[in-house]
Amino acid sequence: MENLLQQLVNGVAWGSIYALVALGYTMVYGVLKLINFAHGEVYMVGAMTGYYTARALGFAQEPSGLGLAVVLLAAMATCAALGATIERVAYRPLRHAPRLAPLITAIGVSLLLQNAGQLLLGADPKFFPPLVASREALRFGALAVSNIQLTVLATAVVLMAGLELVVMRTRVGRAMRAVAQDADAAALMGVPVDRIIQLTFLLGSALAGAAGILVGLSNPKIDPLMGLMPGLKAFVAAVLGGIGSIPGAMLGGLLLGVVETLVAGYLSSTYRDAIAFVILIAILLYRPSGLFGAAQQEKV
Amino acid sequence: MVRTARCARWLSIGVLAAGVALGCGPRKGEGGAAAAKDPIRVGHFASLTGDTATFGQSADRGIRMAVAEVNAAGGVLGRPIEVITEDDRSVTEEARTAAQKLIQRDQVVALLGEVASSRSLAAAPEAQRAGVPMISPASTNPKVTEVGDAIFRTCFIDPFQGAVMARFAFDDLKARRVAILFDFKQDYSVGLADFFRKTFQQLGGQIVADERYTSGDIEFRAQLTTIRGANPDAIFVPGYYTEVGLIAKQARELGIRVPLLGGDGWDSEKTLEIGGAAVEGDYFSTHYAADSDDPQVAAFVKRYQEQNGQVPDAMAALGYDAARILADALARAGKTDGPALRDAIASTKDFAGVTGRITIDPSRNAVKDAVVLKIDNGRFRYHRTVSAQ
After folding, report:
1. A57 lies in which domain range?
2. B contacts of A221 (beta carbons < 8 Å)
3. Would you tell me which CATH number, out of the four given (3.40.50.2300, 3.30.56.10, 3.30.70.120, 1.10.3720.10), belongs to the domain B158-286?
4. Does the interface predicted TM-score (ipTM) exceed 0.90?
């Protein structure tokens, strides 16, 4: 029983990282109907930014809450800027092209960032500095929750709540939802569509940057190719929750994290990656709109 | 280092071409003498980058130090040795390509490498087919030298290493319940886990959990939670240092306090850097101890430190020994052709290496003692020697 609870804690902490990345996929899909395959690389850039910022500012030596906050903000800001730039440079010129063109461009941007990362930062794995000194925060019997897992969870929850607030309670959020519903109609109502799309990229990328820092804290090995697998998994999570749906991406991420952990814990870790893609296939076959997505009629 | 070697070659080709163009190329008669002064080319395929970068880098430093010493003493057969290093980025398939490049493009007389068994296994068939002798400094999986009669190694093999750690766990740590967490993707790790399991059960111990991971994984909490539930006295983690460091950290976070045990895949400064306090008090088996009081080892450690500014790990020491064994065999063979060189390496006997006396047995393996090191105050400390007999 304690083991099962522990696995659930592990799974939720792991899944919250997927959830943060999945949010970016789902938001971009919401406004553009584009799967932004470069999103996993934005997450990688977040982790790398955190690594270099921590070292440059001397936070690498001693764990401190301030260090974590600064590094987190730096990574989110850098990724926000990167996301907005990618949108401006790679996707906006293709706004009215067939849908396949931006999709292939997204794969191109992803490869560009992977290889530029290897060229500029080196292919060697780097080890993220311990910004939080690992210790046990909670214990119930054998169930141990480390302060790192708590930090990861708390940060993810705060960010997701913040996003929910922005999307549901602000004018910008309303504009985003309007663009997602019907970009042309939104434009007619005076919504600056291009700016809103850019803002969507900016927000989604900032969340991916935060996810990069969180993974650096809890699993401190980072390298230029680290975005590939989590990027795909987060995409699966977004589809699982219903792509385009923000609560869906959160739930999908958490669910995927828990399922992977249970599979690795009770079956075999060899199936861990396979299970994510089995879920993807199953969802596409039986419920293409995902858990939270409403079945939609194709617009004519 | 690789780039300089290659640049130098292109440069020399360029200079030669310019010389020919100017009409002052080597005349007939001088050609023979020039050929005799040509360096003997030896290839090294290694993981200079990637997940096990320190293995390739250390082995390369050791090899280059040995070759520099041989060349300073006049080279072999009146010719200097030139090492050409090819990076395989710690990727199994790349090791094969790297070996092919060295054999076909650079026409090397022998290959040195790899440290990781999976990568040695990927490259060995190429060396065997081309009849180019290959010496792996540190691949411990038995299958490596079984590829063919041109494949050698200068280290012990995993049936021995696995037994060493099983006995150590049973006799020294008095462990009766041990959990295993091994890397399913690496032949080294799979083999070592097998031999450990076998010996530990023969001794009367019990394997209470048998979990696996895949190289490149960063999340191990699921497997570790299962292991924690089995309540072991020790955990055997026969992986490579990157994952080992992460595993140790996550194990301690989950409240697992029992010692972790490992093999020579732990032998890298990075284990300490990544693992930090989490690997304190853990043990692993390896090929040599840098803090040994053997005068030959001490002298080697001192020279290496002067040149590279760090303590040589086992991969550096094995690289050094492998290159010296190759130079010794070249001298004894009297020529550089494959079969003669192969026979000379096969007849290596009682070679005084820094990792112990090396005799190549009929299966082309080195029979050597193993040492167990303990991680103590952020350093590797010699704990005990386990004899090969």
Report:
1. 15-228
2. 218, 242, 246, 274
3. 3.40.50.2300
4. no
